[in-house]
Amino acid sequence: MRLRATITQLKKTIANKNKELAQIREDVPALVRAVHQLTLENQELRAQLERPEPNVTPLRQRGEGVRNDRRQVSMGHDSARDGPK
């Protein structure tokens, strides 16, 4: 009687392990794709680090803000002049 209970328990354990292995086998391709994508991104970031960057980064083109303000006034969009609508 004791031997049958042990055999039944072992069969359940084997079935559970087989289910777990099947799930792991299904997950492998997705994990391989994720590792590959991360490897490509890592290579790209390392390449960016190797490229020299300029010391000064311009925030906007010279005189850009003034030109846009003048354009809006000339097109009749001067909210200060027109007043509330």
What does this structure look like?
- The mean pLDDT is about 80.
- The radius of gyration is 34 Å and the shape is rod-shaped.
- The protein is built from 3 helices and no strands.
- It has helices spanning about 1-50, 65-75, 80.
- Total strand segments: 0
Helix content: over 70%
Tell me the radius of gyration.
34 Å
The count of helical stretches stands at 3
Shape: rod-shaped
Strand content: under 5%
Given as residue ranges, the uncertain stretches (5+ residues, pLDDT < 50) are none
> How far apart, in Å, are the first and last alpha carbons?
92 Å
The helix/strand order is: HHH
Main β-sheet: number of strands, strand sense, barrel status? none
Structural class, please?
mainly alpha
- Give the rounded overall mean pLDDT: 81
Main features:
0% strand; mainly alpha; rod-shaped; 3 helices; 85 residues
Short overview:
The chain is mostly helical and 85 residues long.
List the helices and strands and how they pair.
Layout: H1 2-50, H2 64-74, H3 79-82
